[in-house]
C-alpha cells in the first residue's frame, strides 16, 4: 500500500479536513509553545540575537524532506504524486521580498500572526487583518497583474532536477547545509545576544 492517502481514496474529504484541522491546531500550539507568537522573539532573528525561528523551521523542513525521501524509497509513499507548486521565478522573487518586508515591519509571518492573534495579542490581530486585507486586494487586482503572476515559469522545479543530481545526494547535501546553518546560528546568537 502506497500513499498519498487522499489520492488513493483511503481517506475521504471529511477525514482530510479533520486531519488538516488537527495538524493546523498542533502546528499553532507548538509555534506558540516555542515562543513564536511573540513579535519580539521573531524580530530578534533579524538582529541575529535569537535564531529560534531559523532553527525550528529548518528542522521542520529537513525532517519532512528526510521523511518523504525514505518513505518513498521503502515504497510507503509515492513522492511523484505529491503536488508541487509550480515555480514562477519573477513573481515569487517579488513576493518573497514583499513577504520579508512585511515580516520585518509587522514582526510576524502569516502563521505566527495567527498564533499571536489566537492568544489575544493586539499586534497579532492587526497583522491578521492586514493579511486578510492583502488577500482581498490581491483577488481584486489579479486580472491586471496576471501576466506578471505567471512570468518566468519553470514548471515544478526541484533541486535534484535543477542540479542534475540524484535525490539522495541532494538530501545529504541539504542535511549538511542544515547542520552548518545550526552551528553558525548558535555562534551568531552567542555573539549578538548580549548586544
Main attributes?
195 residues, two-stranded antiparallel sheet, 3% strand
Set out the fold topology.
Blueprint: H1 13-33, H2 39-43, H3 52-73, E1 87-88, H4 89-106, H5 110-118, H6 122-149, E2 153-155, H7 159-163, H8 167-192
Helix pairs in contact: 1-5, 3-8, 4-6, 5-6
Report on the architecture of this protein:
This protein has helices at residues 13-33, 39-43, 52-73, 89-106, 110-118, 122-149, 159-163, 167-192; strands at 87-88, 153-155. The chain has 195 residues and is mainly α. It has one domain (13-192). Helix 1 (13-33) crosses helix 5 (110-118), helix 3 (52-73) runs antiparallel to helix 8 and helix 4 runs antiparallel to helix 6. The longest helix has 28 residues, at 122-149. The protein is globular, with a radius of gyration of 19 Å.
Task: Offer a concise description of the structure.
This protein has 8 helices and 2 strands, in the order H-H-H-E-H-H-H-E-H-H. By secondary structure, the protein is mainly α.
Kindly provide the radius of gyration, computed on alpha-carbon positions and rounded to a whole number of angstroms.
19 Å
Please report the total strand number as a whole number.
Answer: 2
The global form is: globular
Query: Which structural class fits the helix and strand makeup?
Result: mainly alpha
Mean pLDDT: 89
Number of domains: 1
Secondary-structure element sequence? HHHEHHHEHH
Main β-sheet, in a few words? 2 strands, antiparallel
Amino acid at each position: 500500500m502506497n500513499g498519498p492517502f487522499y489520492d488513493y481514496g483511503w481517506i475521504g474529504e471529511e477525514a482530510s479536513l479533520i486531519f488538516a484541522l488537527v495538524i493546523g491546531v498542533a502546528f499553532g500550539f507548538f509555534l506558540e509553545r516555542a515562543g513564536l507568537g511573540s513579535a519580539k522573539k521573531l524580530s530578534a532573528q533579524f538582529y541575529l540575537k535569537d535564531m529560534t525561528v531559523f532553527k525550528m523551521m529548518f528542522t521542520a523542513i529537513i525532517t519532512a524532506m528526510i521523511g518523504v525521501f525514505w518513505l518513498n524509497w521503502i515504497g510507503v509513499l509515492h513522492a511523484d504524486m505529491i503536488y508541487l507548486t509550480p515555480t514562477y521565478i519573477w513573481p515569487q522573487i517579488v513576493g518573497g521580498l514583499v513577504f520579508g518586508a512585511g515580516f520585518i515591519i509587522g514582526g510576524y509571518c502569516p502563521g505566527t500572526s495567527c498564533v499571536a492573534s489566537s492568544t489575544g495579542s493586539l499586534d497579532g490581530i492587526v497583522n491578521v487583518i492586514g493579511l486578510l486585507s492583502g488577500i482581498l486586494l490581491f483577488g481584486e487586482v489579479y486580472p491586471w497583474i496576471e501576466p506578471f503572476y505567471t512570468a518566468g515559469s519553470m514548471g515544478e522545479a526541484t533541486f535534484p532536477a535543477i542540479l542534475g543530481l540524484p535525490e539522495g545526494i541532494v538530501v545529504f547535501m541539504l542535511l549538511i547545509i542544515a547542520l552548518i546553518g545550526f552551528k553558525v546560528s548558535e555562534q551568531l546568537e552567542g555573539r549578538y545576544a548580549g548586544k
